[in-house]
Amino acid sequence: MLKVASFNINGIKARLPRLLEWLEETRPSVACLQEIKTQDEGFPADEFEKLGYKAVWHGQKGFNGVAILADGEQPVEVRRGLEGEPEDEHSRYIEAQVFGIRVACIYLPNGNPQPGPKFDYKLRWMDRLRSRMRQIAAEEVPAIVTGDYNVIPNDCDVWAPKAMDSDALMQPGSRDAYTRLMYEGWTDALATHNPRGGVWTYWDYQAGAWQRDHGFRIDHALLSPELADRLVACGVDKVHRGREKASDHAPVWVALRT
């Protein structure tokens, strides 16, 4: 069985003990990280090596940043960053080949406040992601594109739709761009196994959101047709959100037949 997980760690240096704890307890074959918030030279690769994980990463000082870790195998980097806006210096995308599958780790722009330039950037970024996913699909390889999409796909993916109806995560433009990926053949693993929704991956630090279970689902794992057929199980490691100095996200994972 191959287990691929995604975790927006919200600062790899601040959360390193929690991250190492999660890796040791759950032992994913592949771990995709977002919001590592460190320059490349500050990435703690040695700490992961001690646990047997090898990594590729795309860092940025203080913001963003993505990484792919693999248990006992060196991921072979395929791409970092998306084409389409050469002036875009945000570290939000890294793609690698590992364990015979293509793994893309993404941190999609939040887009708030909306309307405005940040929301416009979000939609352009989603168009660029769609273009890259089309290229991957054309290769007909088993592939997963996972990470923090910053999109709440449906009303059943949030504790109270009215509470988020003005947020960039729930705007029609964001949802439409996400839905178009499904129309092009990608499978939302968590939605497939939880068609009624009610599964959260994020709880804000404010207003007692965690204690009141006021969360929503923005961390997704999209599978190509070649990989969707191998999906056995998926879930959210919710318990890790409740620990001391935790990220505001919980890890999501998929289990795949090898």
Describe this structure in words.
This protein has one domain: Deoxyribonuclease I, Chain A (4-Layer Sandwich), CATH 3.60.10. It is built from seven helices and 14 strands. The protein has a six-stranded mixed β-sheet with strand order 3-4-2-1-14-13. Strand 7, helix 3 and strand 8 form a beta-alpha-beta unit. Helix 3 runs parallel beside helix 5. Its EC number is 3.1.11.2. This is Exodeoxyribonuclease-3. Its cofactor is Mg(2+); Mn(2+). It holds the Pfam family Exo_endo_phos.
Instruction: Give Rg in angstroms.
Output: 17 Å
Question: What is the number of beta strands?
Answer: 14
Q: Enumerate how many helices there are, as a single number.
A: 7
Inertia-based shape: globular
Beta-strand share of residues: 25-35%
Calculate the terminal CA-CA distance, rounded to whole Å.
5 Å
The percentage helix is: 25-40%
- Corresponding CATH superfamily: Endonuclease/exonuclease/phosphatase
State the order of secondary-structure elements, H for helix, E for strand. EHEHEEEEEHEHHEHEEEHEE
Largest beta-sheet details: 6 strands, mixed
The level 1 CATH classification is: Alpha Beta
CATH-derived architecture: 4-Layer Sandwich
User: In terms of per-residue confidence, which ranges show pLDDT below 50 for 5 or more consecutive residues?
Assistant: none
Question: How many domains, as an integer?
Answer: 1
Average pLDDT score: 97
Q: Looking at CATH, which topology would you report?
A: Deoxyribonuclease I, Chain A
